[in-house]
């Protein structure tokens, strides 16, 4: 999913300049000095230094916003005006954003990557003719053509309800296409030597955290959807709009009995919710896969499992939204594990698994029950967490 974050990052930049506010990573260190930040959180923290030493200048006037960063010859210039946005970076990358769309040119002729974004969608051309990869993104989804042979690959971006929200029933499409189907298993399978087919995917949505003061200034309510869509230049009939609507619905709906839930729209608010439920002697852990790209659906073997929490934890699931939003919930009768895995292709993973010992209040048609062929409340149900999710446990 792609969102227009220009307005938000402008707000972010101006907020930091005007207030010298504490950044999310600094807030983390102040509240949790003994708890390292997981890689998945680090990747979502948008950091910026605004100082003369970094040679970054921001000018705001009637004509628009101008940003200059770096030394001459290595600098990046950003100009924001009524006509659109222009970005020039000293290594041959030019970006122009106007009413007609977006044009990106990077690299030398013959080795360049051209990206065009207009009303019809997005076109990407990379490499030389005959060896090039073409990517087209439109309302219908994503089409990828690579080389001479093969058919275009269609990638559907709509994912449906979050499978880690336990009052939802799974749709037929989720059962067929959702990679999270493979993440559910029974607790008695959690031991050395067990083989499972798993699909660890990298998050294609690079939405990062906003500072709390910025996130709190943006509406986060289904009643404000038109205003939110306008804020991020989202068309109401787009896939992005439907995903955002789904996220707001999941955040606003009542949780299952005994569940304490909260949607964190900033890292600071996620830290506050988790520490309010578990205390400040907590650590955050996430799944880490030793691979730069998404790995294929393949057989993994459990090399070992270590219990992290016996009865309580806060689990936070990354949502589809224009900026980083996490659906966090504390449930009792929950056990968390750190599981060492090795894939058939040699991929190593340190995965977080969460086991729920009381599922009696879950929707009987939840994805887990349909995949595992068990009934609510009958046996503990476990699932691995994708890389961009976080579990908080006391220590």
TrEMBL record:
Reply yes or no: does the keyword Transferase apply.
no
Residue intervals of the BURP domain: 184-395
**Database matches in SMART domains:** BURP (SM01045)
Residue ranges, compositional bias (Gly residues): 93-104
**Region (Disordered) residue spans:** 89-138
The keyword Ion transport is annotated on this UniProt entry: no
Task: Identify the stretch annotated as signal peptide in this record.
Answer: 1-21
PROSITE patterns xrefs: BURP
**Keyword vocabulary terms for this entry:** Signal
- Its name, as the record gives it, is BURP domain-containing protein
Give the organism the record lists. Answer: Lactuca sativa (Garden lettuce)
